[in-house]
Amino acid sequence: VTHYNQKIERCAVGRCWDECISNSNFYQRKLDVDKFNRENRWRKRGITVVPTTYGVGYDIALMKQAGAMINIYTDGSVLLTHGGIEMGQGLHTKMIQVASRVLEIPCDRIYTSEVSSSTVPNPTQTAGSVSSDLNGMAVLNACEIINSRLEPFKIANPKGKWEDWILAAYNDRVNLSATGFYKTPTYEGEHYEYYTTGAACTEVEIDCLTGDHQVLRTDIVMDIGESLNPAVDIGQIEGAFIQGYGLYMLEELMFSPDGSILTKGPGSYKLPGFTSIPTEFNVALLRGSSNPRAIYSSKAIGEPPLFLASSVLFAVREAIKSARSDAGVSPTEFNLFAPATSAVIRMACEDHMTKKVNVNAPEPDSFVPWNVTA
Fold first, then answer.
1. What is the third-level CATH fold of 12-57+192-321?
2. Which residue range or ranges hold the Aldehyde oxidase/xanthine dehydrogenase second molybdopterin binding domain (predicted)?
């Protein structure tokens, strides 16, 4: 039960945790990290495991709806339109797969066009990782309508092909265009439709003298139900993790004393790059999980993995604790706020050199700072 008193059904976070521990060989690697830290003074490693449980869905009823349109032409080709925006997350690919599964035809017979309110009016915003859930069910509804219209022709010609049934329906003046619509059921007292869970184990190595760090390995296990497209979903998991890595480790917002933002673009704002990707990056999808509240028992996957990148932050904290212990200062009495930039890591690794830096706040109004961090 959550802190807002919603019962989590079919919660798989424990299974994700156990599988992540096993896949990453966590306990043996933790011993290896401790051994490395005993043998090295100025380079330290840390390893942690972090779970996540992400509530999927909107708390506003009017946003829990979607529409779709299916047009079938006499050559058997299908034009699919829905209300979701494709922005690289594979939404069009998944919607074609849904239509292919319902209509029982190959994906290469189905095409999509640019999303427009002239074909699917009043679309719900593409956000919150629910676009596949909502639009997928609308596509399913439209395809089922088409199937019901084609049923008599399939019965009359059971050995026929898709093209035969379509042409027969056209000749019989059957409407080969259908609009689909879906709205989620109402569940009293529930803020979210369901939860996407996962766990990540990350090992890092820091340079205590420069504050630099490297992500050596990350293992992720995500519960995404019965994936509509594992290749797309694994890409989403990897992308969300790297985006979260930027949030927790790199992307420091700076402002001038008058409040205007200084970090306005890539020239002044550190973004994740190719070297930010873990040297070894393993992603596994939890098997045997179901989700009856979404299309074909799948789960949302765009945003849920982002928090798992905090495993990098906490692994860095473990490495800093080892460095502080070697320096004879308290390994726990320090704050590590995100983003943990190189400067933050260096100053957290207290030693005889950092003591020469005066970090005490000066007298108020005694100077004008160059920048103010958020």
1. Aldehyde Oxidoreductase; domain 4 (3.30.365)
2. 20-278
